[in-house]
Structure formats: C-alpha cells, structure tokens
Amino acid sequence: MSLEIASSVQTAAEILIVDDERVARKNLTHVLGKEGYRVTVASSGPAGMTTLRERGFDLVLTDLRMGGVDGMDILRYCRDRHPDAAVIMITGYATVDSAVDAMKEGAFHFIAKPFRLDEVRHLIAEALEMVRLRKENRRLSDLIDSFGAESRLVTRDAGLKRVLETASQIAPSGCNVVISGESGTGKELLARYIHRISQCGDAPFVAVNCGAFTEDLLANELFGHEKGAYTGATESKGGLIEAASGGTLFLDEITEMPATMQVKLLRVIQEGELYRLGASSPVKVNVRYLAATNRDLPESVTSGQFREDLYYRLNVVNLYMPPLSERPGDIPLIAHYFLKRYAKLMEKPVEDISPAAMDLLCGYDFPGNVRELSNLVERGVALATGRSLDVAQLPEDIKRLRIRAYRRRRGPMPTLEQQEIEYIRWILERCGGNRTRAAAILGIDRVSLWRKIKKYGLEV
Questions:
Q1: Are strands 273-274 and 248-252 parallel, antiparallel or unpaired?
Q2: Could you report the per-residue pLDDT of 384-424, keeping only the tens digit for each?
Q3: What does pTM read for this prediction?
C-alpha cells in the first residue's frame, strides 16, 4: 500500500487522486501539477481511505472500480467526514451508469476513460469553484452567526466598525445622538443597537417618522391629548414621548419636523416635561432622544429650516452611517445574511448565491443601500427553484445596467463651480475618459467639455 506525492509551486487547491491504474495516476498528476495544484496520489482504495482519515482535500478524483475499497466507499466517507470536498468519479465506459448513480449520491461528476486532458482541466476547475463557493458560504454563515441572534448590523468594514465602537462607548451615557446617512443605510438599526446596550435597554424603544404626519397629527402623536381637547377626543391619551419615558424615543427624519413642533420638542428636552393637548398641568418624562436624518443637518440649520438650539440639544454625538457603495466588501456578507433569513422565513432550501449573481451584486452601486439589497435577495429567494440564488432570479435592470448614484462628498457645502468640477470628474471616470460619451451625458458638445477640462485641469 504505497503513497506517491507530487507537490507544485502553487497551492491553490489540495487534490487527492485515488486510482489503482498507474498510467491514469501519472497522467492526472502531470496535468494537475502543471495547473499549480498540490496533488496527493493513492494507488489503491484502502490507501486513499487512510489518507482521507489523516486530512481533508478540496477535491478527490477516485476510480469507481477498485478492489477492497471502491469509489463509492470513498464518496460516502467524503460526504460524511469532508462535506465541503468535491468528488469526481473516474470510470470506464462500461460503468457509466454506475457513475451516474454515484452522482445521485453526491458526486460532482464523472470522467470516462480514456479521458481528454482539456476536459479534465475544465471539469476540475468547475468543481473547485463549487468548493470555493461552499467554503465562502460556510465562512460567511459562521461570521453572521458570530454577530449574535439579536444583532442585525453585520459588517466587516473598518469604517462602520469604528461607528459601532463609538456607539458602544456612548450608549451607557444616555446622551442624545443624531444619526446621519442616506436612506436605507440602517440608521434605525443603529438606534436600536444603542438603546439595547444602554442602561435602559429593557425599557421601551419608541420610533416615530417625523415626515409621516401633518403638524397637528404629529403633535397629537408625540404629546397626546386630554379628553375633549378637540372634536372626537372622547378620552385622554398619552403620546409617544410619554410612552418612551424611561427609555428611548427615536425621531426618524427629524429635519421634516415643522418649525412650531421643533419649539415644543426643544422645551420638552430642556424641561423634562410636556403638556398634552388641552391639558393645564405638565407630565414629567425622562427620555433619551435619538434622531436620524438623510439630509445635511448643519446645512438645514444654516438655511433656517432647523432650529440651531434644538440641533445642539440633539447633536451631542453625531454618528454617520456610510452608504453601501463605500463598503462594497460588506455586500457578500449582508447578502448571505438576508439569504439565510428569507430562506428560513419562506421555508426554502436556498443555501448559496452563485458566483455570477454575486458578481452582479458586487458591481451594483445600490442607491437604495442595504434596504435595496434586502429586497433583491428576498425577491431572489422567492423565485429560486433550487439550492442556489442565480442570475435568473435577479431583476433585469441589474443585469443590463451598472447604476452609479452620484453622491456629494461630506463636508462644507461646495460652491457651484466646485460642484460642477466634482460632477464632471465623476462622469469622466464613469465613462473611462471617453469625452464624446461624457459630453453626451452632460448635455453639452465635445468642444465645451474640452474647454471645461482644460479650465479645471480634469485630465482622467
């Protein structure tokens, strides 16, 4: 029972060849070694089984018909002990039917003798890509599980991790926080995270969208009313601020709050008490305020749309949620998180995302951020018919287009000229420096674009 080992310079994958025919072993070792794989060769079924007991492999190529321990024994052992490994059966034409049966039991494919080496290379490359995907799915799944059952802020992005670290530091303090960022980035999730790890984590978390109500309705929602305060007020009712007392009130889209309501909210924050509509005596409240906006809040203060005194009361700490386009490395992780979630909700056996589908997702700019990615994966799981979410389950516009959302950089408001420079540079980059195409998109002729490029020094 002998073992032959052939090591290549590259170690892209570990492959075990189990075959009692010397010529087949030699040919496969030669071609796989040239491809840069690390190859181990066993000259019998028992030798192959011994090797598999000692360590695992990415791919096993095994002869189907061998004495003592045959290919089916090797397949079953790999399926039980090394589930991520792919197994390819080597068989003569007379036993092709048996090889097909082996595929039903989990073999990746089969190679019929005599085999063509180019076909072997192609089949092995496909098998190893499947193995890579299995390992990546398992790694992402383990990483997702490490975030804990309650947390849905899954990330491996260094910038967002710093935001979460800051959130963890200020959560116990009870100070008010403004969370800024584009729509769909997860501002409410961050607010819930701050509340959950704060000292009032077991107290109520109450959320209200300030842009979803008229001024009168928002006043009623926040402050409540006394019986008879207006027509139809048949009984007294506390508002959302009272409901959040002892806990956290999350004010989403705070810049949409009317000016008169800003005055009333400021007084509640300053005095720690409120008046219900129609009431003559105040109600004491103890609330932590977390506010969120997708606008530039300092700019709203400068323009007079938002009260400066309220801004300083709320903006004790400011946390910025970066868009998904600024953390593309999170796309696979978040996509697998939603895949796992929706597959469980829909009771469907969808376990992974194909490389082609993942390439499309990673190449998309996600103007709708994490919320849009969630919708895409939910749609994909709903349409999936097998164990993998593939390109066919993604919307046609993602397949045809590479949408890039223009996003102004954070910081002081730029002048009109600065904005024009930044926009023209962005268009030129997206067009790969093609001035004719860029001019067409900008709606100007090529000569005008050339003049602006020369004026602003915008060579790409």
A1: unpaired
A2: 998 889 999 998 877 664 445 555 555 555 677 877 888 88
A3: 0.64
Please state, in angstroms and rounded to a whole number, the distance separating the CA atoms of residues 173 and 198: 8
Residue 93 scores a pLDDT above 70: no
Nearest in space to 250 (alpha carbons), one of 179, 306, 305 = 179
CB 290 within 8 A of CB 248: yes
pLDDT tens, residue by residue, 422-432:
888 878 877 77
C-alpha 430/C-alpha 433 separation (Å) is 8
Binning the chain into helix, strand and coil, the percentages to the nearest 5 are: 50, 15, 35
Q: Which of 246, 256, 15, 242 lies closest to 120, judged by CA?
A: 15
What does the DSSP 8-state code read for residue 277?
A: B
For residue 83, the Cα-to-chain-centroid distance in whole angstroms is 26
Do residues 4 and 43 touch, judged by C-beta distance below 8 A? yes
**Phi, psi values for residue 53, rounded to 5°:** -70, -30
Q: Domains for the chain: give ranges and CATH numbers.
A: 3-143 (3.40.50.2300), 158-321 (3.40.50.300), 324-400 (1.10.8.60), 416-456 (1.10.10)
Rounded to an integer, the average pLDDT of 274-288 is 92
What is the identity of the amino acid at 300? S
Helices 416-430 and 435-442: crossing angle in degrees, nearest 10, is: 130
Compute the distance between CA of residue 380 and CA of residue 395 in angstroms, rounded to an integer.
9
Cα 334 to Cα 373: distance, rounded to the nearest angstrom = 8
Mean of the per-residue pLDDT values of the chain? 84
**pLDDT at residue 113 in the model:** 78
For residue 350, list its beta bridge partners: none
Which residue has 């993998």 as its token pair? 388
